[in-house]
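Aim 2 progress update. The chain analyzed this quarter is reproduced below.
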Amino acid sequence: MRSTRAFLIGAGTAFLLDPRQGRRRRHVLRDRSLALVRRGSRLGVRKARFAGGHARGAVALSKRLLRRPERVTDDATLVQRIRSEAFRGADVSTRDVDLRVEDGVAILRGSVSGRETADGLVSRTAKVSGVREVAAMLRVTSGDPAS
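Predicted structure tokens:
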């Protein structure tokens, strides 16, 4: 075992210290070694960035899970919030749709011009913070004056 190790050390030394091509071999060895180190460091940076992203995601998830429950708002405040948030982008007048809130349940009554309008209004109302449920009693009327 000792003689094999000594032989390999001697052969490597002779290979690198050869008077004709030893200089080129040393430079190739140096260049390849430095390239290996650069690749390893880039890989380490990528893995660290990946792990950091996972850590940021875990922190965001835990913050979302540990967030305090929203304060319970009274029904009058909730009516105003729904009118300002849900009715803002809708093509619905507040005269056409009656809105009442009882214990966090929004009740929509009235008539709208299309099914898509009704569905959009219900989904926007459900997204308002403080609304527990939406009861939609909307009548869909067609936009044709003949009908």
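The radius of gyration is 36 Å. The CA atoms of residues 113 and 142 lie 6 Å apart. These observations will guide the mutagenesis experiments scheduled for the next reporting period.
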